[in-house]
């Protein structure tokens, strides 16, 4: 169970970090498929910046760093769970920071295809805040 949980955190972190590319180059994202043509922006574009023409502003481009930070925090949390490089005691803080920042970024870049990422981050937050998961060693993970 511990290995599965760590791997899922790492995968989620890698996917979140991969979103940064479209922040640095907002026109590089793929066009929406035909069945999703009703959505106002393409995948990787922000509904806050594209309509106003500010997608190339320093603020919009700087958000790529926040995508990277969220992804790296989730990746580090997964490594901590697995006991690789990062101290295991840090996993909760890293997972909480990564999931919370991921939710913020997913809201800024809201797209129907981000539903899985939003759900994954919400599950991490719920597990940490509502269930108040203890240190991994105390629950047998």
Keywords:
141 residues, mainly alpha
Strand content: under 5%
- What is the ordering of alpha helices and beta strands? HHHHHH
> What is the subunit organization of this protein?
single chain
Rounded radius of gyration (Å)? 16 Å
Helix content range of the residues, please? 55-70%
- Global outline: elongated
Terminal CA distance: 6 Å
Low-confidence stretches: none
Structure annotation, total helices: 6
Count up the domains: 1
| Count of individual beta strands | 0
Calculate the mean pLDDT score and round it: 80
The biggest sheet, with number of strands, parallel, antiparallel or mixed sense and barrel status, is: none
Class per helix and strand makeup: mainly alpha
Topology:
Elements lengths: L1 H17 L1 H5 L33 H25 L8 H18 L6 H16 L5 H4 L2
Helix pairs in contact: 1-3, 3-4, 4-5
Briefly, what is this?
With 141 residues, the chain is mainly alpha-helical. It has six helices and no strands.
Can you characterise this structure?
The chain has 141 residues and is an all-alpha fold. The protein has one domain. 60% of the residues lie in helices and 0% in strands. It is elongated and about 45 Å long. The N and C termini lie close together (6 Å). The mean pLDDT is 80.
